[in-house]
Design a protein that fits this description.
With 325 residues, the chain is of the alpha/beta class. The protein has helices at 3-16, 19-26, 30-44, 60-85, 100-117, 134-137, 169-175, 225-233, 243-252, 281-294, 304-309; strands at 49-51, 56-58, 92-98, 121-127, 141-146, 154-167, 190-192, 203-207, 210-214, 220-222, 239-242, 256-258, 264-273. It has two domains: 3-85, Arc Repressor Mutant, subunit A (Orthogonal Bundle); 103-325, 3-Layer(aba) Sandwich (D-Maltodextrin-Binding Protein, domain 2), CATH 3.40.190. Strands 3, 4, 5, 6, 11, 12 and 13 form a seven-stranded mixed sheet that branches. It has a two-stranded antiparallel sheet with strand order 1-2. Belongs to the LysR transcriptional regulatory family.
Length: 325
């Protein structure tokens, strides 16, 4: 017996005073409505209605059951209605997971814009440098940098992540610019210690068709990519920065890209999520919004022409100063 269907039929019949009208209200046949109530009576071992050819009225046991279940049935009906509306309205709680490195420099301004456009969505953002299993962590959408996220999620590539060796014009003016990977040993360099493992990140270089890894001893080491970017901007040393942090400063002339023939592409920034057909409208809307704003967004990486134009800076002079006089 479908107890929820039987109880619902009973309550509608009691409220409307007719099994036939209850059947029409629920979109079932009168025979199915009558059968549901009889099965409920058999299950409970009591009669719920007095039946005559003209009238349907509650027994004492039926009245007690009606008084007990009607409030709960109203709450259930309201909850089901809310669930259906979540497929039609952009509101409710939206849980997002993202690495700290991409929070402020890449994602946050778009999160703010989404909130302004959809003020009824309650956005809960968890910055976590570990891969987030969406089901286990009860997240709706995740962002991850590097290779595509593994598992059963759908992943969409947004922007490439380049690793670019940079220095400030002031640093180059004082110390010159390294012209080879080996010359980095003669310079003060910054380092990034991964927050999730505690290990010092190796520098990566493209040499021909291969990517080689080097341990570069840091003069200053941090576990936050924005702080490392600030250290390079302040002239404290040469750093290998992610393009999502460096590109805007390179274009403004505040940073000079070095050894650009060795720039590597360290995977990409991905957005990942479960199957769209099972998601509330707020989740689908957020995914579409972020893909529209972020997919191949030139703000966060340098194209080949920009890298070629920046090659081989003269020692002691910033690359941005060449060719202007």
């Amino acid at each position: 017996m479908n107890e929820i269907r039987a109880i619902t039929t009973f309550v509608r019949a009691a409220a409307l005073g007719s099994l036939r009208r209850a059947a029409v209200d629920q979109g079932i046949s009168p025979q199915a409505a009558s059968q549901a109530v009889m099965q409920l009576e058999k299950e409970l071992g009591v009669r719920l209605f007095h039946r005559t050819t003209r009238k349907l009225s509650l027994t004492e046991e039926g009245q007690r059951l009606f008084d007990s279940v009607q409030p709960a049935l109203s709450i259930l009906s309201s909850a089901l209605g809310d669930a259906r509306r979540s497929k039609e309205e952009v509101d409710g709680l939206l849980r997002v997971s993202a690495p700290r490195a991409f929070g402020m420099p890449v994602l946050w301004s778009h999160f703010e814009e989404f909130q302004r456009l959809y003020p009824h969505v309650r956005l809960e953002v968890q910055f976590d440098d570990h891969f987030t299993d969406l089901v286990t962590e009860r997240a709706d959408v995740g962002f991850r940098g590097g290779p595509p996220p593994a598992g059963g999620s759908i992943a969409r590539r947004l922007v490439p992540i380049q690793l670019v060796v940079c220095a400030s014009p002031a640093y180059i003016e004082r110390n010159g610019a390294p012209r080879s990977i080996d010359e980095l040993a003669q310079h003060r360099c910054t380092g990034y210690r991964r927050a999730n493992t505690g290990k010092l990140a190796q520098w990566q270089f493209q040499i021909g068709d291969e990517i080689v890894y080097r341990d570069v001893p840091p003069a200053i080491c941090v576990n936050d990519t924005q702080m490392e970017t600030q250290a390079v901007l302040s002239g404290l040393g040469v750093g290998q920065l992610g393009s999502f942090n460096a590109a805007v400063h390179i274009r403004s002339g505040r940073l000079v890209p070095l050894l650009t023939q060795h720039v590597t592409e360290y995977g990409a920034l991905y957005i990942y999520y479960g199957h769209r057909t099972e998601q509330p409208l707020r989740v689908r809307t957020f995914i579409d919004f972020m893909i529209e704003r972020m997919a191949d967004n030139r703000d966060f990486f340098l194209d080949a022409a920009e890298l070629r134009a920046a090659r081989s800076p003269q020692r002691g002079r910033p690359a941005s100063a060449r060719g202007h006089g």
